[in-house]
Structures are given as C-alpha cells and as structure tokens.
Amino acid sequence: MDGAGHVGRRVGLRVAARVDEADESAVSQGLFGGDEGLHGGSVRRFVASVAVLRWTIVNNSFIISLGMAQQLKVEVKERMEAAGARVFARAGYRGATMAAIAREAGVSTGNLYRYFESKDVLFDVVVTEAIAEDHLGLLRRRVGSLVRTEDLTRLDPAAQRDGEALLAFWVAHREVVVVLLAGAEGTRWEGYRDRFVQALMKPSTAALRERAGSRRLPAVIRRTLERVFENTAQTLVSILRENETEDAIREAFAAFWSYQLGGLRGLQEWVSHGS
C-alpha cells in the first residue's frame, strides 16, 4: 500500500478510537476543541470527512473498526449492568451506591454516570418488569402442578417440568431474584416478597380447602402455611446468595425441596383426616 493508504489507516483508526472513548458531551466540551473542530468546521463534519477519506483509501477497514468500537461500548454497558445486579443483591437498593457499582465494574464513577444518569435508572434496567412478572408466572405454574399431584414425594412429569423451568430461571437471574425478594425496599418492587408468598398461598389454601371439604381453613393452618412460605422466600434468597455455580444451586434446592415437599405432604394428610 502507498503512503497515502498508510496515512488513511492511521487517521481512521485514531478517529475510531476517539469516537469510542468519548461520549457526545465530552466531544462538545472540547475533545476536538469545543463545538468547533479543525479549521472552524463542526466536530461532526470533521469526523464524517475523515470517515469518507478513510473509506476512499482503505475501503472496508473504517466500517470494521467502527463496528468494533460500537461493540466495545455494548460490552462496557453490559459489564456495568452485571456489576449493578451484584451490588444490588449484596447491599439492596438503599445500600447500593454508584461508586460501589463503578468499583465492581472496574470503571470510574463518572463513566458509569455517562451510561446511567442515576441509580434509579440503572436499577430499572437491571430489575425489569418482564423478569419480575415472568418469575411469578413460573412460580404459579409450579405451585399449580404441585397441588394437582396426589403424592408430593413422587412428582409426575408435569410437576417435574415446571420445577425445572423455575429452577433454571433462578439460576439465570440469580441476583435479580435476590433483589426482588430481599433488596427492593425503596423501589416500586418493595412489596414483591408479599406477592411471592401470596402466589404460593392462594393455590395451596384452595387445594387444602378442597381436601378438607370446607369453605374455610382453620386459622392454625393458614398461619402454618404463611410461615412455611415466608421461610421459602428466605431460603431461596439464602441459597442464591451463598451459591454461585449452577451445580451448587441445584444441589441446594434438591435438598430443600426434599424437606419442604415432605412436610407439605404431611400437612395435606393432617388436613384430610381432620385432625
């Protein structure tokens, strides 16, 4: 390649790097000399003209390098989101700070604010309505298949399938589930734990009423179920906080479900016999 080609490559790569590292506010504040660039032209005209020059001299290389720069931005944002999920899970929404999230992500606090203007904005990106509602939907499906099972110690294929779907969700969204159940105070999700418990309570009490042949369960049964399902929420949080690998999470839930389903089966029998 001739000298002009080499110059074009060097200039183009330099511009691609600068565009990747700088946000629009940094550019306008003077990275290229304020709003006015070289020879009085605007920054945007300057970058565009160099892009055209590079395209003319080295063909596809500019597009490739620009694509790589855009990919790096996405990777940085995703790293910040993952760091936010970990910090929110450890400290809760109220205890988390942007400085702590930036340290977790390995970026400066100022750079974090360039991507997310506040902690609220980052929280809403991490803890989405889709995840929260999908979780409750999978939970209700799991409980629905359990209450239709005659023997909770011998689950049918539908109950096993629904249990696996819920467990896979917990593995995939470990930190967010912890936040929803134990770290959402001060956000619109602060009542989520109660919704979780009620998603377990409603179908369970309905099934027990049917077994007992009664329109209303004794208060002692309702209080017992509430304690059981509150404990379920707390145990879920503990397992997801204490175990990071999928194998460890699965093993912990296998042990917990073995204990819990056996206990619920005993409660079913107790209610059925009216004593």
Distance between the termini: 91 Å
State the major sheet: none
Order of helices and strands: HHHHHHHHHHHHH
Query: Quick one: how many beta strands?
Result: 0
Strand coverage percent: under 5%
Total number of distinct structural domains: 3
Radius of gyration: 28 Å
Short note summarizing the structure:
The chain is mainly α. It contains 13 helices and no strands.
Highlighted features:
275 residues, mainly alpha, Arc Repressor Mutant, subunit A, disordered N terminus, elongated
Structure characterization notes:
With 275 residues, this protein is mostly helical. It has 3 domains: 57 residues, no CATH class; 50 residues, Homeodomain-like (Arc Repressor Mutant, subunit A), CATH 1.10.10; 146 residues. 79% of the residues lie in helices and 0% in strands. It is built from 13 helices and no strands. Helix 4 packs across helix 5, helix 4 packs across helix 7 and helix 8 runs antiparallel to helix 9. The N terminus is likely disordered.
SSE layout and pairing:
Elements: H1 3-21, H2 24-31, H3 43-58, H4 61-95, H5 98-105, H6 109-115, H7 119-126, H8 129-147, H9 157-172, H10 174-182, H11 192-212, H12 219-242, H13 246-272
